Fold this sequence. Notes:
This protein is an alpha/beta fold. 34% of the residues lie in helices and 24% in strands. The protein has 16 helices and 18 strands. Helix 7 (128-142) crosses helix 16, helix 8 (175-181) crosses helix 14 (333-344) and helix 15 packs across helix 16.
Amino acid sequence: MKKVLVLGAGLVTRPLVRHLLNQPDFKVTVASRTVSKAEALVDGHPDGTTLTLLAGETDKLEKLISEHDLSISLLPAPLHPVVAELCIKHKKHMVTTSYVGPKMQELDGPAKQAGIMVLNEIGVDPGIDHMSAMRIIDDVRKRGGKVSSFKSYCGGLPAPADNDNPWGYKFSWSPRAVCTAGKNSACYRLNGERVDIPGPQLFTDNRHGMDIEGIGYLESYPNRDSLGYIDIYGLEGIDTMFRGTFRYPGWCETLKKVVDLGLLEETPATYQPGTTFAQFMGTFVKNPGSGDVRKDLAAQLGIEESSAILDRFEWLGLFSDEEVGITDRETTPLDILANRMELKMPYRKGERDMIVLCHDFFAKFPSGPDEHITSTLIDYGQVEGDSSMARTVSLPAAVGAKLILAGKVMLPGVHVPVIPEIYNPVLDELATMDINCIEKTEKLG
Length: 445
């Protein structure tokens, strides 16, 4: 009997827990700050256990890790290295869906010495994007070719039928996390030249779009450090390397003004009880003139007062006399914005989200025509069931955990899923769950 510890019971966790509980020889413990959330995931399954685990209960966490064969951390990313260190100490395997940060990478040597595998970036983005890309890249290499250009895009969005608010977005996970991602700097390579984008300019001139069959036109903006994946994917010398995030049109231009105003600031400010949203927005006006917040902000941002950007602010209630509802005078603009988005932009009952992932390759072959290769995944959430975000983030992690515990892949150290021993079985099993990438190849010349 294999014992798996799942740390966290957030919005994406249910498919992973249910998938592992459906295995005949697995016992699953779900530890969460809010035990009721864990209990809802396990739902009375005889092989499931739940318990409360609070931040700072390191001794309790260590005991749990020591009692299980593998830990899956779905905690906030800064906590993954803490979990990893304890897994290394007790020689237990670990899986996360998050990016490998510097602190996690430093644990590669200790993990190898302990003989354990720490598998990261096995969600959707990162995760399915890596695996589906590497399957194509390795195939090109086997056929004697070389990838000269690679652009990859992914986004979690409302399904077209449920895209009914002016922001073109709804939240299937933390609004705060989505917003803070809008402050990240980015870099990529375009036609042999390095392009660096500071965080404040992320949504400016670097976005571009493409038509997705069955969906329509989507915009994208750069996703963090694309250059780091040149080495990971083995694409040294590639002319173009770009990773981007998909959004419906309008999101990028609006987020640019959100950033310009300072609405993503995380420095606490003092707000009096009873502060309205109009008063809150007024604090960002540098030169009050008319006394009308919308008009003053239009002038400050250099846009028309009738702009769709300000219509989105209006729809969110940011110019209203409704009280902000803060419980602590010391709070941040980001907290206020994220709380408002969470209230106004959830998925309603019966609505579906959607994951769109698209790879675009150009490959050169010395003894044959060059190729334009695309790989596209479009996955929809289940009506009255799991969201697409939850399925595509957590099911790859569940399959990866099964591979490790079954001994089918055993590579000590800190890893991401870019080798055939991982990506082939994971992608093959995901296809049986209708999470599938459709590949198309066009011969050139």
